[in-house]
Amino acid sequence: MMGIVISGRKDGKKFVSMEEYKKQFKEKLKIEPFPGTLNILSDYTRILKKLDGIIINGFVKDGVKYGNVKCFPVKIGKIKAAIIMPEKGDNNYLEIISKYNLREKFLLKDGDEVKIEFLPFVKKRRKYFLECRENDKKGKIRIYYGNPLIDDSLMEGCQEKKGGKVLPSAMVASLLFERDEKESFKKLMKWTKKRYSIMYPPLLIDYGVLKEWQIEIKWNFD
Hints:
Elements: E1 2-6, H1 12-16, H2 19-29, E2 38-41, H3 45-50, E3 54-56, E4 59-61, E5 64-66, E6 69-76, E7 79-86, E8 94-98, H4 102-105, E9 113-115, E10 117-118, E11 121-134, E12 137-144, E13 162-177, H5 181-193, E14 196-198, E15 203-206, E16 211-219
Antiparallel strand pairs: 1-2, 1-9, 2-8, 3-6, 4-5, 6-7, 6-10, 7-8, 11-12, 11-13, 13-16, 14-16, 15-16
């Protein structure tokens, strides 16, 4: 995806530098972040706010509650980074962390265009059982996965919802991408097979300007 560099509200440095967040960035993202963020204007901001990512847990410190932060692994050039989105935040831009000062590393200034590539990651996804009826005949039990951008997406293709049940969350290998479905699929499969056992066939979700491959997985103990 492409984004435009902008100046933010200058509060990213404070939160990224907090030890409680830093420890989790290192554990979950393998990034020990530079104290500051690169701020990007992007058409994807609205979509990413609704998608599941890697969750950095909030905490309470000195009587102040700090919220969860949702993250998406990315890279800029060859540099590993992550989009971070405070769940309590109302920013209309994206914040990106890295071990480097990305502005200095790439000699960026406000108004410059930056290419950002999503990387595979593992997330949790809720799974639903629905019983469907077609032409007054009882259908078999089906599993549906919700598209967060579609209202009542679990009803899609189902005339009647009966006995809907939320199952435990499943582990899912995910890759967000923009255009090339085949190459993105190959990249996710290669990454997944090195680490996990695949449980179910891949699922392709189209969010309009952004797409996502999902593969339900389990830990590979072999």
